[in-house]
């Protein structure tokens, strides 16, 4: 039997990327299991999606903890308890701190809606459109201590061509839902063969 990677998906909102990843784990495109969903907002819709999918989920409220170190230490306990090997950020709107970075060194990935290094940080699609950029796109990258600065794993772009925000957003999501499972499958299979 194939060795399936155990991953946790971190999200803050809608969770369409969680959904795409979950479906890829079910239909054979991604040899991995999402063993935990972590949300930093108890009202995040991703929690409803996790429930529907039968994936264990956990939410917390960062401001109820004394520090990032305190809530990340609590998360490490949950993640290790679930046997999590990789952290997959999918719309998680919070910087990862030293406790998680140390525990999951080189095993944290993120997806970002721009062609990095252009437009890191919040509202990357808004930034792209406001700057009048010719191209929009998506980057999958490793997470380091910076804001969207880690080594790039995969990128895909398309011409904006005067499209409105709704159209650009839809294209970005379409790309993300394909590119993220594909990139993770490559990454995990490389890991297993070393
Ligand atoms: C995605 O477009 C993702 O790239 C972006 O949040 C969206 C979440 O959508 N992430 C960032 O901007 C991180 N800086 P989803 O909740 O439907 O998956």
TrEMBL record:
Molecular functions (GO terms): phosphoribosylglycinamide formyltransferase activity
Pfam families: Formyl_trans_N
Record's keyword terms, sorted: Purine biosynthesis, Transferase
Transferase among keywords: yes
Marked site (Raises pKa of active site His) residue numbers: 148
InterPro entries: Formyl_transf_N (IPR002376), Formyl_transf_N_sf (IPR036477), GART (IPR004607), GART_AS (IPR001555)
Entry binding sites for N(1)-(5-phospho-beta-D-ribosyl)glycinamide: 15-17
EC number(s) reported in the record: 2.1.2.2
Domain of life: Bacteria
Pathway entry: Purine metabolism; IMP biosynthesis via de novo pathway; N(2)-formyl-N(1)-(5-phospho-D-ribosyl)glycinamide from N(1)-(5-phospho-D-ribosyl)glycinamide (10-formyl THF route): step 1/1
Top EC class, one word: transferase
Binding site residues for (6R)-10-formyltetrahydrofolate: 68, 93-96, 110
Gene Ontology cellular component list: cytosol
GO biological process entries: 'de novo' IMP biosynthetic process
Keyword Transferase: yes
Active site per the UniProt annotation: 112
Catalysed reactions, semicolon-separated: N(1)-(5-phospho-beta-D-ribosyl)glycinamide + (6R)-10-formyltetrahydrofolate = N(2)-formyl-N(1)-(5-phospho-beta-D-ribosyl)glycinamide + (6S)-5,6,7,8-tetrahydrofolate + H(+)
Domain Formyl transferase N-terminal: 6-183
Entry-linked Gene3D superfamilies: Formyl transferase, N-terminal domain (3.40.50.170)
HAMAP family recorded: PurN (MF_01930)
Purpose: Catalyzes the transfer of a formyl group from 10-formyltetrahydrofolate to 5-phospho-ribosyl-glycinamide (GAR), producing 5-phospho-ribosyl-N-formylglycinamide (FGAR) and tetrahydrofolate.
NCBIfam families documented for this protein: PurN (TIGR00639)
Assigned protein family: Belongs to the GART family.
Protein name, as recorded: Phosphoribosylglycinamide formyltransferase
Lineage: Bacteria, Bacillati, Bacillota, Bacilli, Bacillales
